[in-house]
Amino acid sequence: MVAAATQAMPAQADDTQHSKHDNKMLNNAHPGWATADKDRGAVPASQRITTRVFLTGQDPDGLAAAARAVTDPDSPGYQQYLTADQIKQRFGATPAQIAAVQDWLKSAGLSISAVSGDWIDAEGDAGAVQKAFGTQIKNYQRPDGSVGYAASSAAVIPGSVAGLVAGVSGLSQATTRAHTDSAQGSGITSDGDPSPGCGSTTTTYWGQYSATGWPAGSNGSTIPVLPCPYSPQQLRQAYGLTHTGKGARIAVVDWYASKTMYSDAQQWSADHKIQQFRDGQYTEWKNEGAWNHTSGADACGSAAAEESLDVEMAHGLAPDADIVYVGANSCTDQDLMAAEQLIVDKHLADVVSNSWGEIIHGTDGDADPAVMAGYDRIFQKGALEGISFTFSSGDCGDDDPANKAGGAVNCNGNSARKQTEWPVSSQWVTAVGGTTLATNSSGYAWETSMGDHRAQAQAGDASWNPGVGHIPFFFGGGGGTSEDIVQPWYQAGKVPGALAANVQTAAPATRPMRVVPDVAMNGSLATSVDVAFTDGKYAHHDMGGTSVAAPEFAAVLADVKEASGHAVGFANPSLYALNSSAFHDVTSRSGVTEGMWSNGDAGTLYQVGQDTSLTATPGFDNATGLGSPAAGFEAALAAQKGPAAPPQGGPAVTRVAGDDRYATAIAVSKKTFPKAGSAKAVVLATGSNFPDALAGVPLAKKLGAPLLLTPGNAADPRVVAEIHRVLAPGGKVYVLGGNAAVTPAVVSALKVPAQRIAGDTRYTTSVAIAHALGDPSNVVLATGNGFADALAAGPYASDVFTSDGPAAILLTNDRIVPPAVYDYMRDHAGVLAAVGGQAVSAAAGTWAGHLTPLAGSDRFETAAKVAATFPYAQNAGVATGMQFADALTGAAMLAHENSPLLLTMPTSLPGFTRTALQGLAHSLAGGGSVDIFGGPVAVSNAVENAVAGAVGGHVVAP
Asked: The dihedral of CA 209, 203, 549, 559: what is its sign?
């Protein structure tokens, strides 16, 4: 299905720009289709508009890092879940924050209609909305010719609440609605026999019988008869499921609710001779009085068939699991998001099955990035609680608009181009694709991708309609490479590079991107499943789609909970860590795979495994992902364990220091390169200013070199001696900056080969260093006018924000991008990060769609945010944030160790730094260390002890 909201910016675009010291601009509030030439005039001032203001909470970056830590098998915190209350206390918006945002909205004349820990819904007339968000609301013609309202410019959030607001939706008129990812096959129903769709011949498995007397197929006149719709017992046998989900709870999310769901499921269970729900095993969360029954083009339609499919598949494959149905009040994002949030806030389930989605790029606009980010926050909190989310990948293959035009079902008429859908593309959910599953008398026979092509004929016809060789795509599992979501960590090295590097439209990506699905299970109409529901009367129906696969896999995860004794949580990192033997490797079959069913004089031919541009290949592919669960999958996933507990005693905290900044840099060099002649190069920068040394940290990493400092106008004998000690024979010193920074006399006094890397200014010098790095396409921006926010950028650029080598650090003139830097970014930059508020502001306009912003309220929080990108660091460093020298030379050492740098006050440890160190404590405990750079004047002994306390370590005496 498709969830509601349209906007023009891609999902991962940065949404903020600080236009003044105290204001925040939300650029994505203004969609790209709302252009001046499409302006159709202001909306009436009295028009009612509903907005949703998303809250940042207390630590949004920490939330993502914590969610990763509890779900990654390589993390010491693997499966150490938090409760909903603990998450609320640590990451949720505080009552004071919520009250502040409410007061701001009310002061503009808006009324508050709903409040949660993640958002506030506010509504009012257009005049009040314009006052609140500092933009005009106008009508514009959309790309498809329709007219809708939109913000005419970026929304402006006042400084008093700027840090509390993550984004806003509703300033542009939503156009899309959710659609279910399922369809009925034969259309034949049965009142009591759970075998509809069998037609004239009742078959248990593919090819049990053959049909003759019909037009020839691609393989001749003898065509295999398709199986009757599968029972839950057949599916459990085929996938080797031995557990029943005892102790687990599955939530099913759709909209509205069938009045006969419970009785239908009970009768369906009896018809299939499986256990019915026990008292209390099935529950519902719904509020019929709040249902939003939209009309016309916005109508949601009934989801009763989908609800029955989802509940019955979940129960059939995990018959002992509790099932809770959560009915959203409509098919809009606003209501579906509320349903997901309810599950997380109340921990209603261990696994959540979702058979709906969203076209991201529509002919009437793009999905709202604020809404997409809001979903991600819910999924991250769910992951931290140990909740899995499965989503169906769609039934329209690659979502090419031509598919709908060619007669395919379950395709959105407003798809603008080939694409993956949402929320299934989120890196925080498990994307479940579809297969065609053939069984035999022993259970599993073979599988290929869905890719259903369908033709029909009447008895006596000479050929199928359409004819063989011309049968178009009809129905197939969604998948492909997202153009919006970057590759998550768990897919790196697991997904073929060629897949991740080319998005659905076949255009090359600027960096590896998310590929879906993650896994797949049966969903083809050729191998449909039996579902029963009441539509006037109770009857059985044959149904297919990835809506079948999503609850199937949710049930498998419930079975795994029984096997392991604990919830799986967000499953993807564990799935990608499994041995390939845990999966059936679903591939394309040679030739044409086809089968048919007939009912009297009517026959239907299915050719399967031809899923548009998606192809099932050996290994991971974009049609079926890792594959489908094989026998032993439950045991393999249940056996996943995190790393062994770290030894007792905690990390060692040591001080690396000298009598001055030059001596401290030498001490750092000796610790990094203790063996004489072990450095291939030395990077040398002035100790009088920071910009050249900052930009030089990635160069030191690339060259395998220490970063040393020198007085600018006279050689320091101590520095010269260290260069001669550490430099390998034939090595070279790379001198950063022009003659004014490091004079020729200093270079001459080194008495070793030297190469100067310089420009006319600090900005052009940073560009020259980028050229020396080989013109990397990954760029980290930092201001060149103040070191405070920039100090932590070096290790991040060297170790985290990398692509085939360190990223370049380029300098901004505060919020202005200098011409030379602009030219480099235009010619070379593919993706961009910015460290510090000034750099974020400089980049947020032109490069917003490719920007990773890392900025806090001060230098200490900024460094803490950067450190959160090193969740499993074995080492860390702490330096004073009040001067640059120790931090930058220490940063070069940390870059060699893949470790973060945190900042402190000289005599007290800031709260942001303490919290960041506490977050690293577990990974540091396994033999790690923390280095304090600089002497007791720079970082006092009291701070050193506080650092040891934060990480549970001990101070090592000098």
From this structure: negative
Q: Within 10 Å of residue 717's Cβ, how many Cβ atoms?
A: 9
Q: Are 33 and 868 in contact (CB under 8 A)?
A: no
CATH 3.40.50.200 in the chain, residue ranges:
204-638
Tell me: pLDDT of 899 over 50. yes
Q: Whose CA is closest to 177, among 367, 10, 339, 314?
A: 367
- Written as one string, the DSSP assignment of 845-873 is TTTGGGEEEE--SSHHHHHHHHHTT-TT-
3-class secondary structure, 391: strand
Beta carbons of 34 and 140 less than 8 angstroms apart? yes
User: What's the Cα-to-Cα distance from 162 to each of 90, 152, 620, 677, rounded to whole Å?
Assistant: 20, 20, 43, 52
Is the pLDDT at 17 greater than 70, yes or no?
no
Residue range 649-677: average pLDDT? Answer: 94
Is 874 within 8 Å of 923 (Cβ atoms)? yes
Q: In angstroms, rounded to a whole number, what is the distance separating the alpha carbons of residues 56 and 440? A: 53
Chain segment 26-37, per-residue pLDDT in tens: 887 888 888 899
Query: ∠ at Cα 442 (440, 444), nearest 5°?
Result: 60
Q: 53-103 pLDDT, tens per residue?
A: 999 998 787 788 889 989 999 887 899 999 999 999 888 999 999 999 999
CATH of the domain spanning 204-638 = 3.40.50.200
pLDDT at 13 over 70: no
What is the CA angle 704-706-708, rounded to 5?
150
CB atoms within 10 A of CB 442: 9
For the segment 843-864, what is each residue's pLDDT rounded down to a tens digit?
A: 776 665 568 888 888 899 999 9
The closest of 250, 838, 189 to 558, measured between CA atoms, is: 250
Q: List the structure tokens of 797.
A: 């650029």
Whole-model pTM: value is 0.77
Which residues contact residue 892 at a Cβ distance below 8 angstroms, ignoring those fewer than 6 apart? 668, 672, 683, 696, 697, 700, 701, 705, 706, 707, 794
Q: Average pLDDT of 750-762?
A: 95
